[in-house]
Amino acid sequence: MAARAHDVAALAFRGRSACLNFADSASKLPLPVSMDAADIRRAAAEAAEAFRPSASKEVSGSVETCNADANFVDEEAVFDMPNLLVSMAEGLLLSPPRNDWGDDDSDIGVSLWSYSV
C-alpha cells in the first residue's frame, strides 16, 4: 500500500521520469487533481486503499477467509528467547577467564609493529 502511495506522489512530482515501484500499473493509479499537497495526499491515500489486502476473498461464489496464522512460527518458543536473553545477561556478570599462559612478563616491552626503516 505504501509503495502504491509512493508511486502516486512520484508521478505527481516527477511525471514520466519518476522511478516507480510498480511501473507496469501506473495507468491504474489515481492522479491528483492539482499539485497541491492535500490533493496529492488524497490521491496517494486513495491508491493505497485501492490495493489494501482484504481479510476475506470471494472465490467462485463462496467466501474463503485468509488464515494469517497458517505460516506463523513462534520464534521465541523455537529459540527459547526468554531464557536465552537471561543467560546472555548472566554471561555479562561473569569474571573474565584466568590467564594460564604463564606469569613471566618477558614480552611486555615487545612491540607488535616495527617502524624501522
From TrEMBL:
Coiled-coil regions in this chain?
none
Give the PROSITE patterns listed for this entry. AP2_ERF
Record-linked PANTHER family? DEHYDRATION-RESPONSIVE ELEMENT-BINDING PROTEIN 1D, DEHYDRATION-RESPONSIVE ELEMENT-BINDING PROTEIN 1F
Name used for this protein in its record: AP2/ERF domain-containing protein
Q: Which InterPro entries match?
A: AP2/ERF_dom (IPR001471), AP2/ERF_dom_sf (IPR036955), DRE1A-I (IPR045277)
Its annotated compartments are: Nucleus
Which keywords does the record carry? DNA-binding, Nucleus, Transcription, Transcription regulation
Could you name the domain of life of the organism this protein comes from?
Eukaryota
What range(s) does the AP2/ERF domain occupy?
1-23
Main location class: nucleus
From which organism does this entry originate?
Hibiscus sabdariffa
